[in-house]
Amino acid sequence: DVRLVFKEFPIFDGSDEAAKAAMASARQGKYLEFHRALMAYDGRVSSQAIDDSAKKVGLDLARLRKDMADPILNARLDANHKLGTDLGINGTPSFVIGTALMPGWSASEFDKLVKEARDKKS
Question: Which residues lie across from 97 on neighbouring strands?
């Protein structure tokens, strides 16, 4: 009974474009594949990295670029930043598990917090 929700929360210069590309890739049903390809990309995140990752996972690049220009994506990023700020998130990755905020990544801490959240739900 775990639900994983990705929220794009770009914090580095130039990462807004990558966040928009990730959100746009969902419109082609390839969000997770694109996300993984971009995270595995060897080099700086750039327009070229986005294009290479999109091609690697079989995205229609022209459609991706068109979808990235949709103003709705800017509104989603603004909403994500507000939510992140309200929750006290100041870096990525960050996880909200139950009512706990876990900045960074630790498999053991993640497992512990999931167990605690499940125990509270029971």
Answer: 100
